[in-house]
Amino acid sequence: MKDNKSEIGNRKSKIKKIDHIGIVVKDIRRVIAIYNSSFGMEGGEIEDIPSYGVKVAHLSAGDSSIELIEPVSPSTGISRFLEKRGEGIHHISFEVDDIQSSLSILKKWGIKSIDKVPRKGSGNTLVTFLDPKGTNGVLIELLQHIS
Asked: Which site from 33, 83, 84, 91 is most exposed, i.e. has the minimal number of CB atoms within 10 Å?
């Protein structure tokens, strides 16, 4: 009998880097100003993402970024997160080369995706979120830059 984990181990889902850390905020403009002036971070152009019911802004942090997320609709998961937990870290995002391949490998390990299929994220990306039950309680986003 073949060991399934050995087979998976030969085909790893390679993480390129931590792309960003997502932080839920009440007032994105205020937080951008604080991060720019206090930490010398650059960026902060606000992008509306109606399909998620949020506004986001990315602030440069070396090779990674901080993604500020402000809910604009009360019916979104981000809005419920803010109401229940307050402002703070929401997720960590890992950049991968091939999101579909990564999902296939993770599925064999029993790690499920919340999204049925990857969807368009901010900028020119595909994203999917992994169920925290399979990732030690951490909400992980896989992100693939698309051309």
From this structure: 84
